[in-house]
Amino acid sequence: MTLERIEVVVPGRDDARRVFAEMAALYADCKVELTENGQILVMAPAGLEGAYNSGEVFGQLANWAVQDAQGKAFDSSAGFFITPNENRSPDAAWVRNERIESIPKAERKGFAPFCPDFAIEVKSLANSLPEFQEKCARYVECGALEAWLIDPEPKTVEVYRPNQARVALKNVKSVAASGPLSGFVLDLTRIWAGL
Fold first, then answer.
1. Is residue 130 located within the same domain as residue 89?
2. Are 139 and 165 part of one and the same domain?
3. Entry pTM
4. What is the pLDDT of residue 1?
């Protein structure tokens, strides 16, 4: 039997960051997140198709970020304290260079002390859609300029932006970012095709 997900609720909020750090170290090969209510989520590594999809999204974002040179792209192993007590790891994220440079060099090996400017989540069959919708809305609440939720099975992309209603796109071949990410266009054809 394989590990799918472990959920731990830390009773005292003061202890949540410490317990989260211990769990992240203990499960270094897994995705570990801390929710705003002190729940620690340990998720097993992705399956083959899920890893392909999130890797495809990250790869396209990373290639664009290198060409654009205004920020850096991060994969799902990066943790962001989107609030002082909530740490999330989007499947792909982008942060402007000046925000990265605001972190002292010695502290850059740890989790980012802020929400990314842009986050993408890719839903897999094992994930709950409402949970991922809440995550993307939360990124925007905490400072992201944009967040996308990609759901390969119904071929939909939900776009979240501050002070705007969520936009759902169905069966589109690509999706374009806005604001500082203008110019980034995610080609969805390989994700929709699957493995």
1. yes
2. yes
3. 0.92
4. 40
